Amino acid sequence: MKKSALPDPFEQARLEKGVGHMDDQNDPVTMVLGLKDVRKCAHKWQTFQSGAKPGRIVVPSEVAIRETRQIPFEVDPPEHKGFRDLLDPWFKRPLEPEYQDKLATIIHAVVEEALNADEVEVVEEFSLRLQSRALTLLLNIPYEEAQTWISWGTHVFRSEGESLDGDKAAILYDYIDAQIDKAAENPGDDLYSVLLNSEVNGKKLSKEEVKGVMILTFAGGRDTVINAVTNSVAYFAEHPESLQRIHDEPEIVNTAVEELIRYFAPLTHMGRVATEDTAVCEHAVKADTRISLCWASANRDEKTFPNPNEVVLDRKVNPHVSFGFGTHNCLGATHARQIMHTLVKTLAEKVKSIEIVDHQDNVEVLGEFNRKVGFHALNVKFTAK
Asked: Which UniProt keywords apply (predicted)?
């Protein structure tokens, strides 16, 4: 099997039962596996809520390491709309040509660094750098600040081999508190300052609400972008013909990006908490228990995607759910798509070949399922055109 391949561990359970089961810190989760069912449950926010106890809808649960509610991720309608109306214009800025030019400069620099190195460890030295530097643009803060985030390493909430680490999480929370205080004293045109001076539903945002937005912005786009970028590099290493095809047919860049995001599904799943006794795929779900919307399984649903376990760069119909679905679709999707679009285009223009030297898989253990989500380490050699 190719190193870039991500098998579908959910296929049998999806076909036979429609659900899977896992225990998460003694708070069991019913995993919803089919695309149609995932979308239906995501749509029914009254029955499957996001606004539960802070941290509980994340799998693994973060209840033990945070009390701050991530906004708008852990807020349900009607309050949710006020926050989205405020945040959407800011997070749609990657559609502006000036933003895209600045992002291209950042990504070109990361690719050039890789081309000039003898060998690159993609997770830490390529993907983390790219993600962190691009985030300075999203937050509208100095580029140099990326070095601080890079110094944290890839896992802000975890130590190697552990599911959660409150001490590591505190580094991020303390950092955000300090940045909010700084912006309160000396407002600028960065996201912290904009939020501190904004109102939602007729009320000024509190520091705790600003912190909730910022924690989501840092945490939500970190591992996901790193996984998407690293997996794509591995894929192009083993499929140089795909990189050449994108170079020769630049008009397929958008469909290629959507397909890579579908196939690699950078985030496996996201939880919800049932507000009443209900059922999913004829399986009983009790009030105040959790389900998860398994994006990675839904993206391989054979009822929707022909050849679901293959990367089809020009896939015509691609209703993947890698960025979620419904009310709580991903706030950072525009930024993530623009990163991937620019990266894929840049690799096709500048890179002749990528050779994998060695690798260490990152496998998630999810109850009855083991899913390769990406890599802990991926050492490669880039060769320029």
From this structure: Heme, Iron, Metal-binding, Monooxygenase, Oxidoreductase
